[in-house]
């Protein structure tokens, strides 16, 4: 139970921490806004968990998937808007959405097993350790990305943010094929012998850039196209705004 | 003319809908174990997994191989579509009880059906 809690907390906290750090390094937000976003995110995650049994039977028992697809799309759009305009609202929406998407799973796990006396201690220690590891990773990532920004400018960060956001659209596609909304296409390659997604490095890569060992054609094309779209928008839209102003 | 165009379309729709709904594979989660732990499904066909969580705790059906993830609420049924898949072994597990709740979808060319209908 202790190891499961630790792995679960890392799985659900890492994607939140990575997006938070990426957005913070692209354009820094004040500590108050950051804390506000985190508190709102935790609150909405609990609300999502509470309303999940009501949402679940909607649309022929596909309500939760639709809600999660909506959150994934919201993360992509708000991250893109933040990369272009650095608007606080976009930062808040991205953070709250990613927290609701990932933390809700962990909250379901915590609530489900908390009642068991034997499990409570393991859950607490596992969560505490997971938070500690995630915080350490976040600090290191923050300084690494800040150093990259100082040396190479914003472009590498925008590429990373584009890949991270595009990965959320791939999650949305997987959810859509899970409920038979879109057809699953053929697997393009199988890298399970080289790097599995449940290995330590595989998990970090998955949280960072959406690594998939067995991607299907639709996912791969969407990933590439949405990354290109993200980067093109970041490159062309600020230029057109500057032109209009001058 | 319109009738001639519509008729094949309707036949096609009816055929596809029967084809899509023809195979249900039922998996039960009980005492943090999947029953059956292995299901055999035909290659290159979409199948519908009906997963029933009979435990009093939630579970999360997770599979890196199938790119699927779904919370299974206690005492409830959930549906996941998978495939079409190429022959091979695709593992899945319960993320909340990964040591016990483990299973695999075995995709074969020859249909050794353990479908429910």
UniProtKB/TrEMBL annotation, chain B:
InterPro entries according to UniProt: Cupredoxin, EfeO_Cupredoxin
Pfam family, one: Cupredoxin_1
Superkingdom as given in the UniProt entry: Bacteria
Gene3D superfamilies, A to Z: Cupredoxins - blue copper proteins (2.60.40.420)
Start and end residues of each EfeO-type cupredoxin-like domain: 17-107
Protein name (database record): Cupredoxin domain-containing protein
Organism name: Pseudoalteromonas marina
Lineage: Bacteria, Pseudomonadati, Pseudomonadota, Gammaproteobacteria, Alteromonadales
């Amino acid at each position: 139970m202790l190891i499961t809690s630790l792995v679960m907390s890392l799985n659900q906290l890492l994607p939140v921490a990575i997006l938070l750090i990426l957005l913070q390094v692209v354009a820094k937000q004040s500590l108050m806004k950051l804390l506000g976003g985190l508190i709102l995110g935790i609150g909405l995650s609990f609300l999502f968990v509470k309303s999940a049994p009501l949402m679940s039977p909607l649309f022929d028992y596909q309500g939760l998937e639709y809600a999660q697809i909506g959150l994934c799309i919201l993360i992509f759009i708000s991250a893109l808007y933040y990369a272009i305009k650095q608007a606080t609202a976009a930062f808040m929406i991205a953070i709250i959405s990613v927290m609701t998407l990932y933390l809700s799973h962990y909250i379901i796990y915590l609530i489900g097993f908390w009642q068991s006396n034997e499990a409570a201690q393991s859950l607490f220690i596992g969560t505490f350790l997971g938070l500690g590891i995630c915080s350490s990773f976040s600090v290191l990532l923050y300084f690494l990305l800040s150093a990259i920004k100082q040396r190479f400018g914003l472009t590498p960060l925008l590429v990373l943010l584009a890949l991270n956001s595009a990965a959320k659209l791939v999650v949305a596609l997987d959810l859509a094929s899970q409920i038979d909304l879109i057809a699953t296409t053929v697997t393009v390659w199988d890298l399970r012998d080289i790097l599995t997604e449940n290995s330590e490095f595989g998990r970090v890569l998955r949280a960072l850039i959406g690594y998939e060992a067995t991607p299907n054609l639709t996912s791969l094309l969407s990933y590439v196209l949405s990354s290109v779209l993200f980067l093109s928008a970041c490159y062309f839209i600020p230029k057109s705004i500057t032109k209009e102003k001058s | 003319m319109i009738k001639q165009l519509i008729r094949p379309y309707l036949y096609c729709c009816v055929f596809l809908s029967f084809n899509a709904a023809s195979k249900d594979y039922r998996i039960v989660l009980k005492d943090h174990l999947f029953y059956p732990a292995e299901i055999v499904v035909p290659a290159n066909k979409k199948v519908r997994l009906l997963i029933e969580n009979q435990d009093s705790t939630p579970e999360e059906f997770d599979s890196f191989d199938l790119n699927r993830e779904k919370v299974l609420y206690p005492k409830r049924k959930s549906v996941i579509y998978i495939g079409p898949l190429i022959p091979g072994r695709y593992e899945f597990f319960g993320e909340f009880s990964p040591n016990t709740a483990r299973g695999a979808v075995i995709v074969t060319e020859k249909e050794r059906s353990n479908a429910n209908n």
